[in-house]
Amino acid sequence: MREIKFRAFDFKVKQMFIVKQIHIDMMNSKKHHKNRVYMQLTGLKDRNGVEIYEGDIVKMFGFDKAIEVVFKKGSFGYFGMIHKNFVSFSENYNFNFLDNKSNEIEVIGNIHENKELLND
After folding, report:
1. Rounded to 5 degrees, what are φ and ψ at 91?
2. Per-residue pLDDT reduced to its tens digit, 74-119
3. What CATH code is carried by the domain that includes residue 30?
4. CA-CA-CA-CA torsion sign (78, 54, 1, 22)
5. pLDDT tens track for 37-52
6. Do the Cβ atoms of 41 and 50 come closer than 8 Å?
7. Does some domain include residue 52?
8. Which distant-in-sequence residues (6+ apart) come within 8 Å of 78 by Cβ?
9. What letter does residue 82 receive in the DSSP assignment?
10. Which domain holds residue 105?
């Protein structure tokens, strides 16, 4: 069973924090509430054991560009670099997730604090 956790980025104080408690009625469909955006844990970890959240920027070994982790079509994944189509982590067997950890992915930042990493 996967643990359900959220973190939030507060635009006002420009800081990321772990959410201890959440009320569904305080989030709208885009997961925004006032000056915050909420991001859900994927249930996966990178090569260093770092938890991967929606909005993280990850480096996938064998690829030149970093990508953003997104939630779409009921699963976590990314948009392909060539065709720009959505690819879920569960569809891509190249990552070899063993016990929800992949040696092929490394979290290098997040979209709210390190957007420039996507421009490589």
Report:
1. -85, -25
2. 888 888 766 688 888 777 656 666 667 788 889 999 999 999 998 7
3. 2.30.30.290
4. negative
5. 889 999 889 999 999 9
6. no
7. yes
8. 58, 67, 68, 69, 70, 86, 87, 89
9. T
10. 6-119
